[in-house]
Amino acid sequence: MSEITTRPVPAALPPTEAELAAWRALSRDEQLTRYRDALQAPDAGRVSKATMADVLTAARQRVAARRG
């Protein structure tokens, strides 16, 4: 698996402007490689009982905690 320094897009949280610029700078092949790597990661196939609303709520709480 290649080292992922730019997260695959889309993600649960919106990317920053710097992340978007870095993503757009990648070739199509590198973008596809990063998607494939993310989807083949061991935790990509995990099943969860959390709803999308649960995931969104948790993500918003993490963002709020980071912002203080």
3D structure, described in words:
By secondary structure, the chain is mainly α. The protein has one domain. Helices cover 56% and strands 0% of the residues. The protein is flat, with a radius of gyration of 14 Å. The chain starts with 16 loop residues before the first helix and ends with a helix.
Write the layout of secondary structure elements.
Elements: H1 17-25, H2 28-40, H3 52-67
Based on the model shown, name its key terms.
68 residues, flat, mainly alpha
Order of helices and strands: HHH
Tally of domains: 1
Uncertain residue ranges: none
Largest sheet, in brief, is:
none
Fraction in helix: 55-70%
- The strand count comes to 0
- Estimated share of beta-strand residues: under 5%
Short overview:
The protein has three helices and no strands. With 68 residues, it is an all-alpha fold.
